[in-house]
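Q: Fold this one first, please.
A: Sequence and structure below.
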Amino acid sequence: MILCWQRFALFLLFAMAITPVTTMRNIMYLTGQHPVIPYDVSLRKPITHVALAFMNSNTFNRDEESSSWPMFMSVEEARSEFEPGTKIMIAIGGWGDTGGFDTAARTEENRNRFARNVANMVRDTGADGVDIDWEYPGGNGEDYKQVPNEEKAWEITAYPLLLAEIRTALGPDKLMSAAVPGIPRDMLAFTADTVPQIMKSLDFLNVMTYDLMNRRDNVTKHHTGVQLSLEAVDAYMANGAPADKINLGFAFYTKYFRVEGKSCAESPIGCPTGLMEDPETGADLGKTGGFSWHDNIPEDVKESFMKALYEGQYDEQGGGYWYFDPDPALWWTFDTPEAIAMKFPLIVKEKKLGGVFAWGLGEDAPDFAHLKALNAGVERLTKMKDEL
């Protein structure tokens, strides 16, 4: 005779046997600027998704039927470069690509046409889904000085409608994600009213927790800082995004800013930067810069960067690696492998997030030191989940 507790134990064993192991998402954007893939299989194996970036949004506003979908790498080629089971997605849009989305979202007819073309592209290319990179619906994009935010307010309600149309066209079996702003001032379209609608269409959100300092700021801070990243994640969760559908963003590149004089030497963090963009046009005034780990270091900052690399320090309060070079008055901010490792217990584990992503895979070549740190963090948390 089987006792109640024995039946319960058998039920648990059966449930554990049929419940799949939950693997954290580990997403890599693969860009046309740096289409470099590691040869080492141990570096590729932990990657769960690859987003090929970018396909221009205007591509999907055309009326004529076409099976031509130009990309720097085909889905078939990407599949051959990664491990079996890796999901290959197409990223549509990107920084500065707003016109195509603006056209698409304006009317029901336009939304339907755009979504139909996206679905056709996924079918023709064999992709597993799409990542929608309309990064700043509602305003604050690259053209925010030319087209004021009030003229884009209609996009706040149109954005979830466009996503819903794309989801309907794709069907339930294809993946759909969106890259979304990491700075609260830019989350104009991500409110308590819209986020629940948005999440109905998406499998996950890629929260861009990088470039958290940019030329629109007026004091120094960490462009990938822990505290600023937590603020971003908290904002989406407070407005209705489930934690397990949020992916934390990592930047495989450096950033530097030219500040006003040498006065920042005494208190570098939070130091005034001076004007970094034209107040009328929004144009870059040449005080910001950056490069990926795969790029050549610009000669005019090479010596300063070497100092930043070897003399920089980690800010325990804000959670970021930084260096201030007083002679050229340069503020450096970027993630080291050690800084990447810190984010897993402090953000990913603490907030119970569903995954991570990085911009971008090839940007970390040839050493892939930051990818190694990211993979290690994912593997540790996945193992912890498996042991619970």
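Q: Good. Now the second chain.
A: Here it is, same layout.
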Amino acid sequence: MQSPSRLVWSIALPAMLTNVATALFGLADMWVIGRLGDAAAQGAVELGAKFMMGLLIVFAFLRTATVALTAQAAGEGDHEEQSKILTRSVAVAVAIGAGLLLVRPWAVSAGLALLEAKGEIAQNARIYIDIRYWAGTAWLLSCALSGWLIGQRRVRVILVIEVAANILHVALDLLFVLWAGWGIAGVATATACSELFKLALLIAAIAREPAASRALAAARWRSTWDGQALRKLFSLNRDLFLRTLLLTAAMALLARSGAQQGPVVLAANGILFQIFMLSSLIVDGFESAAQVLCGEAKGRRDRGRFVIVVRTAFAWAFLTGLVIGTIYFFAGSVLAAGFSTNPDVISTTATYIGWTVLLAILGVFVSVFDGIFVGAGWTRAMVLTMAFAMAVYAGALHLAAPLGNHGVWLAFSLLFVVRALGQLYLLPGLARRDFN
């Protein structure tokens, strides 16, 4: 048997590298549009990307729930159930994608109004959204397929696919924006094309799995659509949807607060958020490890294994967060300056870079706790802690308004602190209940 550290890292490292590759989508877009030196264009891409993330990320439960359910089925040694999970997840992704296309005219207008996009920024953001929106279903299907592969510890396959998609994305960004001069439309087109390419690679990878043929057959099995199995899927998905919806609302409030302070602060906050997301996605490798290994422990009802996984994941994640925070402390301003040629944006970003140092460390606890709670199926408790933290965050935004943009980032940091404390409080009782 592998040592706990080797076991955690065997999943966390490929997932970490995959997440870094994923972060390059946003970082590449921000860097390329920053070469134009237009704060309004950079702000429009930031708002357009926030809208698309807000629209789609609430359905990221497709990936998270599929990871947890597949890992639990693997822990029980139920190969047939793994095939059924793949079938159900793909069906849900297709249904959601069709629904999003139906509400497109209303969703775009309502989203831009919510983000308080006005004038030139609103027009440019709509150009970005109108192009990327059509690749939304591909993003949803990719979530379901990648979640199924991760649940079977096929994280390295995901890494290869993500790197290939990002290489294409960066190349298309350079081609469409800097060479062809398409501007904002070029950024959106590059992202949409790379998402379609990633889906094609995932389908190719899934087709090589023995369970793929069973998954196609499972669509015709009555047991696949059994009421109890569907209730379990939708119960888990519902909780994850609510958690992600609250988290998306928090990020939308962050973007909205930046937009209220003008295009320079909006662009600077967009850069800072991308830097924070880079650290978050790195640490999220341990979230993936916790999801898979805690899910397997839950399937086996193995309390000892569960406790070892929790302790090991936290130890390595905290150490990783400290390393990232240290790097940001010494080189964060230099890193941020590379994402714009506008001197006002660069100066404003340097003023607030310290918050990325703090968030790199705070994000560790939320990421690992979420992995534990999802893997063990404690999603209702996770939603409750997120709802309470969101209430604190909204109140802090109001009370910290006199502090300006520092107050915005202070409130955002409190969101992470309150979530982690809530999950820490609930963890022992939940473990005693399910592993007794």
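Q: Anything worth noting on the second one?
A: The chain has 17 helices and no strands.
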